[in-house]
Amino acid sequence: MRVVILGSGRGSNAAAILEAQQAGRLGRARVGQIFSDKPDAGILALGPRFGVPAAWLDAAPFKTKLDAEGEQRYIAAIRACAPDLVVLAGFMRVLKPPFLDAFAGKIINLHPSLLPSFPGLDGIGQAFRRGVKITGCTVHYVTAEVDGGPILDQAAVRIEPGDTLETLAAKVHAAEHALLPAVIARLSAASA
Ligand code: GAR
């Protein structure tokens, strides 16, 4: 199962996927390419570290979506990898139908809350400020409804009285690092 990862940030979840692959815990899935919309994103440094092609793909001019030209650039570059699965690991742009249709049923996203609670930006901060006692992370298929596609799996994290936003973020990220590779491995087994 050929996997393409898209990310905008430090890439800790992409690293967790690649570490799982190295350790033989990613089933039949193999990461073939990483793309980032941010030229200086930490996720791009994983390429040389893990021996996987990693490239910046210009997504200008918007911050949280792709214009028509950027969308075609992304579709063409991803198509060239012939992926079976496109993993959004901290890719902070909303995807629209032309992109979604190009990889229908093959795009999954990681979100740092127990959806449908706290969709959108800063899922961890939203949960912390709301004062819920349990939050977590979700892996779901991507549809045109932002953070609204069918849920593949979730992991729960308890918010303890002594937690700060920082300690909570660390717990949610640890849960993400276990959940996302496990879901990919499971999908690869199902597609075998
Ligand atoms: C992760 O916490 C992921 O859930 C979040 O971005 C972070 C990326 O971290 N994604 C979203 O908020 C998507 N709406 P990473 O770059 O260290 O993997």
Q: Can you put this structure into words, describing what you see?
A:
The protein has 192 residues and is an alpha/beta fold. The chain has one domain (2-190): Rossmann fold (3-Layer(aba) Sandwich). 35% of the residues lie in helices and 21% in strands. Strands 3-2-1-4-5-6-7 form a seven-stranded mixed sheet. Helix 1 packs across helix 6. The radius of gyration is 16 Å and the shape is globular. The termini are close together. The mean pLDDT is 97. Bound molecules: glycinamide ribonucleotide. Glycinamide ribonucleotide binds at residues 7, 9-13, 43, 89-90, 110-112, 123, 173, 176. Residues 7, 9-13, 43, 89-90, 110-112, 123, 173, 176 line the site of glycinamide ribonucleotide.
Proportion of helical residues: 25-40%
| Count of helical stretches | 6
| β-sheet strand percentage | 15-25%
| Backbone CA Rg | 16 Å
CATH fourth-tier homologous superfamily: Formyl transferase, N-terminal domain
Short description:
The chain is an alpha/beta fold. It has six helices and seven strands; from the N terminus they run βαβαβαβαβαββα.
Observed structural traits:
binds glycinamide ribonucleotide; 6 helices; 7 strands; Rossmann fold; globular; seven-stranded mixed beta sheet; 192 residues; alpha/beta
